Amino acid sequence: MPPLLDGLRILVLEDEFLIAMDVEQLCRDYGAGDVVIARDLAEIDRKSVASRFDAAIVDLMLGGTSTLDFASRLRESGVPFVFASGYSDMDEIKVSFPDVRLVTKPYSGDDLVEAVAAACGRGPLV
Q1: What is the CA radius of gyration of the chain?
Q2: Within 13 Å and on the Cβ side, how many CA atoms surround 117?
Q3: What digits encode the pLDDT tens for the residues 62-119?
Q4: Three-state secondary-structure class, residue 27
Q5: Rounded to whole angstroms, how far apart are CA atoms 78 and 46?
Q6: What DSSP string describes 57-125?
Q7: Who wins on pLDDT, 20 or 3?
């Protein structure tokens, strides 16, 4: 596998344990240096996100709580991210985050890794 995520520190916001574990392993398989899973926004020190992470994978809802405000803060702090979600009504995402890629669940590992790599300015899979 090409090291598309080589050395990146990635934050994974995902409340479904098995999905979070799969995403963590996928990121590591593609070269990520560090992967941190947060299942709730309360687990994150929001002030240090920009200095601790190079990218984020954000589920739209964590335990019934929207992550859109957090995503806005990621964008303001310059942390590239992608949304990964199973929700089908994505109009608000398209309007509020037109340049952020949405990878819909169920997604393939390659789709997710390619989206994160692209968000970080790295090339797509060949």
Answers
A1: 13
A2: 22
A3: 888 889 999 999 999 999 999 998 876 677 788 889 999 999 888 888 899 999 999 9
A4: helix
A5: 13
A6: EE-SEETTEE-HHHHHHHHHHT--EEEEE--S--HHHHHH-TTS-EEESS--HHHHHHHHHHHTT-PPP
A7: 20
Helix (H) or strand (E) segment spanning residue 55: strand 55-58
Q: How far apart are CA 28 and CA 46, in angstroms?
A: 23
Task: Name which of 43, 40, 14, 36 is nearest 107 in CA terms.
Answer: 14
Alpha-carbon span 27 to 29, nearest angstrom: 5
Distance CA 88, CA 1 (A): 30
Q: Could you report the per-residue pLDDT of 32-53, keeping only the tens digit for each?
A: 999 999 999 888 877 788 889 9
Distance CA 102, CA 9 (A): 20
In the predicted model, what is the mean pLDDT of residues 6-17? 95
Predicted confidence at residue 1, as pLDDT, reads 52
